[in-house]
Write a structure and sequence with these properties.
The protein has about 375 residues and is α/β, with parallel strands linked by helices. It is built from 13 helices and 14 strands. Strand 6 and strand 7 form a beta hairpin.
Length: about 375
């Protein structure tokens, strides 16, 4: 059953299917020599605003910059607290610490992997200025309406980390639909190549419906200037280059199809793996669609690492997102040496992600599924 053809993400296969259009648009940028803030960047920005139904998109250099710029725009002071889930990629907490703010790491729901309004409420203090819900693995945090109500009552900002869920839809209590990343005061995303909407290098963006925040975000991303050589605030140099914008614009037209392809693959996994004792398939939030940036199982028998090694021997790649709670990372231990979060620590021992991408077919999935099933026979 060994095969060399299975990949966690098939970036090359996706490219080959859109090669002609991608190559044409890249060549147009090269011919124009408008590499920085050129027409392609503005065109992609406008198209992404239309897709998300958001008033302002601010492209930037990468997803980590997007998070940092969002925090820089909020006039925070050293020591202000930012609530962030402990079960997430380091970038979410890294920028908080980098700016001299205090990351307050909280637990997540064991089944959805996302933070809840109740968890956030229990961590609020007078120093809480920002909450960063992470829409992990491809679906919107299910309590966003409640979180926004808490923000109103307790006067804090909400920055959505939408690096893994772009394209997902969230259904509000009133029945209205919002795209992920457009619910909070600011949304951020990454266009890293393996993301659901990925470029061929680094890239990122911020979203907001607040005109004043948008003005500040643009300013910070451009050396603190709105007018050339007039620097109003301390900023940084973070911009999406035109070649990456051209690539993203081609792929944006297909984003809903890409999301559908991932959901189809995930549904097939669900039907084939749901009855295996020792495996919990991903929970789907009732208020959010799931775009499956990752298809993440919980291995509940204590043999997650054995399963990972077994799959490797069968030629099936897998990944563990994430093996260590953020608060146990050496860089963050000093913030709260005594912290213990039950669900986070359990997930770090149980989660394992199977290959999922837009180019998957049943033949490849059946090989993966059979490998998982054979481990438990």
């Amino acid at each position: 059953m060994f095969t060399k053809n299975i990949q966690m993400v098939d970036v090359r296969g996706q490219y080959l299917n859109i090669k002609e259009e991608i190559d044409k648009d890249i060549q147009e940028v090269i011919d124009s020599c408008a590499f920085i803030n050129g027409p392609k960047v503005k065109e992609f920005q406008a198209n992404l605003e239309a897709y998300l139904d958001v008033k302002h998109v601010i492209p930037c250099a990468n997803g980590t910059d997007a998070l940092q710029i969002a925090l820089m725009a909020l006039d925070l002071k050293s020591g202000d607290e930012v609530i962030v889930p402990a079960f997430t990629y380091v970038a979410t907490a890294e920028v908080i610490a980098l700016l001299g703010l205090t990351p307050v790491m909280v637990d997540v729901d064991l089944d959805s992997f996302n933070v809840t309004a109740d968890i956030i409420q229990s961590a609020l203090t007078e120093k809480t200025k920002v909450v960063v819900p992470v829409h992990l693995f491809g679906q919107v945090t299910g309590d966003m309406d409640e979180i926004m109500q808490l923000a109103k009552e307790h006067n804090f900002y909400v920055i959505e980390d939408n690096a893994q869920a772009i394209g997902a839809n969230y259904k509000h209590h009133n029945g209205n639909i919002s795209k992920s990343g457009t619910i909070g005061h600011i949304g951020s995303t990454s266009f890293y190549p393996s993301k659901n909407l990925g470029c061929y290098g680094d890239g990122g963006a911020l979203f907001t419906n607040d005109q004043a925040l948008a003005k500040m975000l643009r300013k910070i991303a451009n050396h603190g200037q709105a007018k050339k050589y007039h620097h109003d605030v301390i900023g940084c140099n973070s911009r999406l280059d035109a070649i990456q914008a051209a690539i993203l614009d081609v792929k944006l037209k297909r984003l809903d199809l890409y999301c559908d392809a991932r959901e189809t693959a995930a549904s097939y996994y669900d039907t084939q793996l749901k009855d295996i004792e020792g495996i919990n398939i991903p929970k789907r939030e009732s208020k959010s669609t799931h775009v499956f940036h990752q298809y993440t199982l919980r291995e509940t028998t204590g043999r997650r690492d054995e399963l990972k090694e077994y799959l490797k021997e069968k030629g099936v790649p897998s990944m563990v997102y994430y093996p260590v709670p953020l608060y146990e990372q050496e860089a963050f231990k000093h913030y709260d040496p005594n912290i213990q979060l039950k669900a986070t620590e359990k997930l770090c021992k149980e989660v394992i992600s199977l290959p999922i991408h837009t180019e998957m077919n049943r033949e490849i999935q059946d090989i993966i599924i059979e490998a998982v099933k054979s481990f438990y026979k």
